[in-house]
Amino acid sequence: MPESALSIGEVINLLRDDFPDVSVSKIRFLESQGLINPKRSASGYRQFEGDDVARLRFILQQQRDHFLPLKVIKSKLTLWERGEETIEGTGQSSLKLEDSGEPLDRASLLQRSGLTDDELKSLIEVGIVRPIPGTTVFPTEAGVVAAESRRLMEYGLEPRHLRAIRLSVDRESDLLGQLVTPLAKASNADSRSQAREILEACSISVNAVHRSLLSIELKQHLST
């Protein structure tokens, strides 16, 4: 095995802190589906190099944070290989406003988030988690919202406290929505496509401003 290459066991140890459910069988399955393709030694053992580990980390993060099906992740890998998709936390990226996955029913949302039925009910009541209008299912992104809300609740926050986040998002959405109202209402596809591009681009700045302002304010709590 090359000096820089890792065995499958070493890769699991490297990733386990961020992805506790990673396993030999899961890595083998991803390989069987064509998402990763590590080299093999003369005796048939998998050899993972730096790019293989980065690729695997990207795949696992898409599954954990966005609950994306493998078919969608495979298409995003093409962008990742060109440097157009980043592992979250390593760079700024805009929101993607096209459909990114299958809706979640209530049972799936509970399973993926780790919430109890009463906790989910409370989050729905305060508007943190919302079903798709006119349906009883939830957007794919609701899985992330629910899971992160559970983590905040474990630190002692209650659903009613999280309503502040919803109000902030609603205000930001209304603000940016004003920029594209004429384009979004147009019947032609080009105008609607332009509206999407504007919103996706603006999301980069909004996220950067939000994160920076929050960082400034949180530092104040540590200096007092």
Describe the protein:
Residues 89-94 have low confidence and may be disordered. The chain has helices spanning 8-15, 24-32, 50-66, 70-81, 106-113, 117-125, 142-154, 159-185, 189-223, and strands spanning 39-40, 46-47. It is built from nine helices and two strands; from the N terminus they run ααββααααααα. α3 (50-66) crosses α4 and α8 packs antiparallel against α9. The protein has a two-stranded antiparallel sheet with strand order 1-2. The protein has two domains: 8-81, Multidrug-efflux Transporter Regulator, Chain: A, Domain 2 (Orthogonal Bundle), CATH 1.10.1660; 106-223, Multidrug-efflux Transporter Regulator, Chain: A, Domain 2 (Orthogonal Bundle). Helices cover 62% and strands 2% of the residues. The protein has 224 residues and is an all-alpha fold. The chain starts with 7 loop residues before the first helix and ends with a helix.
Helix count?
Answer: 9
Radius of gyration, in angstroms, nearest whole number: 20 Å
Flag low-confidence runs: 89-94
Order of strands across the main sheet: 1-2
Mean pLDDT: 85
The tally of beta strands, per DSSP, is: 2
Report the structural category.
Answer: mainly alpha
Distance, first to last CA: 53 Å
What overall geometry do the principal axes of the alpha carbons give? globular
CATH topology of the largest domain: Multidrug-efflux Transporter Regulator, Chain: A, Domain 2
Q: At the first level of CATH, what is the class of the largest domain?
A: Mainly Alpha
CATH architecture of the largest domain: Orthogonal Bundle
> Oligomeric status of the shown chains?
single chain
Total domain units: 2
Main sheet overview: 2 strands, antiparallel
What amount of the residues lies in strands? under 5%
Element-level helix/strand string: HHEEHHHHHHH
State the helicity in percent bands.
55-70%
